[in-house]
Amino acid sequence: MAGNFWKSSHYGQWIISEERVLEGHERDSKSLSVDDVKKLHIFFANFIQALGETNKLRQQVIATATVYFKRFYILNSFKSIDPFLMAPTCIFLASKVEECGPIPIQRLITVCSSLIKSKFNFAMTNDFLYRPQHVLECEFYLLEMMDCCLIVHQPYRPLTTYSESLGPEVLNTAWHIINDTLRCDVILTHPPYLIALSALHMSSVIHNNENAMKWFSELTISIEKITQVSQQIIQLYELWRGFDEKKEIPGILFRMPRPRMSHSGSLSGSRCSTPSGMR
Questions:
Q1: Which of the residues 9, 85, 153, 265 could staple to 5 if both were Cys, CB 3.0 to 4.6 A apart?
Q2: Nearest CA-CA partner of 49 in 102, 120, 99
Q3: What is the pLDDT of residues 94-128, one digit of tens each?
C-alpha cells in the first residue's frame, strides 16, 4: 500500500539502522574515509539535483532519485557501479516511478555530458562515455538491489500538513532544510514525518517563532526524537560548511574504487547486494 507509510516497503524494508549505515560508509575504507564517503554523497546529491533541475523535474522526483542512489551505495561498494552512471539511472527510474513521464535516455545522456563539461568539469576531465544501453543495464541492477521497492515516502507531504498553522516563513525555511537532508543519511534511518518535524523545529528556532514553539510543546511526539534528527542535520551542515567541493572532490574521486567496463561495453563486476536483513 503506497499511501500508508507504516504498511509500505519503505518502512518494512528500507528504514536502516545507524549501525548498518556506518557499515556501508566503511565498505570502501581501504581507500576512503567515512568523511570522504559522506562528501561523495554530498557531491552526487548536488549532481542529481542539477541533473533534475536541468531536465525541469519536480523536487519529488529529484528526492526519490537521491534516495535510490543512497540506498544502492549503502549496500554496495563504489566499485560495483560507477556513481556517474548510477546518478542519471536513478533520475531515469524515479521519473517513471513518480509518474512524471520517463525522460528520453538520449536527452538524459546529453544533459549529463553537458553538465560534466560545464558545472562539474572540476570532477571529471574526460567525456561522459556512457550510452543508453548502459543506463538500461544499470537500471536492471538498481531494481534488483532494491527488490523492486520503488515507492519512497518523502517528508514534503507531512511538512505541508504540519505547517498549515505555522506560517509561510517557517514552511519555506523548513522546505529548504528538507532538501538539504538529501545530502545526509536521515532519510535512510528515520521516518519522513520525523524529518519534517525536525525541519520545522529548526526553522521555528531560526525565525524565533513563539507560536511554533508552543505548537511543539503540545505534540505527543517526544521532543528528544525530533532533536536527535536535528543533531544529524546539524552535523551535515558542519561537514558541508568546511567542504571545498572543487578542491577536495578530484582527490576523493581519484581514490574512489571504480569498476572496469568489459570489452563488450557491459558493466563488469556488478554483483549487487539486496536488502535482506537490513536492520
A1: 153
A2: 120
A3: 999 987 777 899 999 999 999 999 999 999 888 88
- CA-to-CA distance for 137 and 268, rounded, in angstroms? 11
Give this prediction's pTM.
Answer: 0.92
Amino acid letter, 158: P
Q: Per residue in 220-269, pLDDT tens?
A: 888 899 999 999 999 999 999 999 999 999 999 999 998 865 444 556 54
First to last CA, the chain: 21
Q: Which three cell numbers stand for residue 247?
A: 578542491
Amino acid at 253: L
The full 3-state SS of 143-178, as one line of letters, equals: HHHCCCCCCCCCCHHHHHHHHHHCCHHHHHHHHHHH
